[in-house]
Amino acid sequence: RWTVDAVADGAAALEAARAHAPDLILSDVMMPKLDGFGLLRELRADPALRHTPVILLSARAGEEASIEGLKAGADDYLIKPFSAQELLARVAAHLGMARMRRESAQRERALSDAALATDRRAAQVLESINDGFCTLDSEWRYTSINPAAQRMSPILADALGKTLFDIFPEVRSTIVEDSLHRCVREQTSIEFEFYYEPNGRWYQNRYYAIAEQGVAIVWTDISERKWS
């Protein structure tokens, strides 16, 4: 059922494993040059081999011997004498679990790559739009600001980590602050127009709750429309 590469001792096993990573290692505990525990330590210290399933075989019976092997990092510990059927069953089980772990890791990497690609596309979109965009955390601190927002309000160029009210203290106790609290409290989206007196401009503001973590804000300068 499997291709088996047999070697004489632990040192040869380690050399063979490093030359061609195996799917599983079946090792005696008592061996010359490098015993099973020494081999296990070397395998677990090697980044390329640390996740390789290892089954130790030993003539030492009893619960303490099994615990010692498992504590050392073995995936399984088989006490001699054992039947061929039991050995094959354990090997098959650990190969199956190792395959599932690999497939799970591959799926996680694929999902992570997809998420990164989505984040990059979203960042490109936010950098290209003409509307101002920013995100605030639950304490109203700026966590992201797009280039358009900084062009519309140059003061935002140094706003990351500061609160909205540090940058725009004039909006306290206005519809801006009320809408922030309502947006988070009700986990909803809110849209309103606001005249910002310090620069004499009208803005259309859209607030979006971010799963109890804060608010995403999109705003558009609508002054020309309001005055036409």
Q: What does this entry look like structurally?
A:
- The chain is of the alpha/beta class and 228 residues long.
- The chain has 8 helices and 8 strands; from the N terminus they run H-E-H-E-H-E-H-E-E-H-H-H-E-E-E-H.
- The strands form 2 sheets. It has a 5-stranded antiparallel beta sheet with strand order 5-4-8-7-6. A 3-stranded parallel beta sheet has the order 1-2-3, sandwiched between helices.
- It is 44% helix and 21% strand.
- The mean pLDDT is 86.
- The radius of gyration is 31 Å and the shape is rod-shaped.
- The chain has helices at residues 10-19, 36-45, 63-71, 84-128, 147-152, 164-167, 175-186, 223-227, and strands spanning 25-28, 54-58, 76-79, 132-137, 142-145, 189-196, 201-209, 214-221.
- The protein starts with 9 loop residues before the first helix and ends with a helix.
Compact summary:
Helix content is 44%, strand content 21%.
Structural class: alpha/beta
Helix percentage range: 40-55%
Shape: rod-shaped
Integer average pLDDT: 86
Strand order of the largest sheet: 5-4-8-7-6
Helix and strand sequence: HEHEHEHEEHHHEEEH
N-to-C CA distance: 81 Å
Q: How many helical elements? A: 8
Strand content: 15-25%
Cα Rg: 31 Å
Number of strands: 8
Uncertain residue ranges = none
Biggest beta sheet summary: 5 strands, antiparallel
Write the layout of secondary structure elements.
Blueprint: H1 10-19, E1 25-28, H2 36-45, E2 54-58, H3 63-71, E3 76-79, H4 84-128, E4 132-137, E5 142-145, H5 147-152, H6 164-167, H7 175-186, E6 189-196, E7 201-209, E8 214-221, H8 223-227
Parallel strand pairs: 1-2, 2-3
Antiparallel strand pairs: 4-5, 4-8, 6-7, 7-8
Helix pairs in contact: 1-2
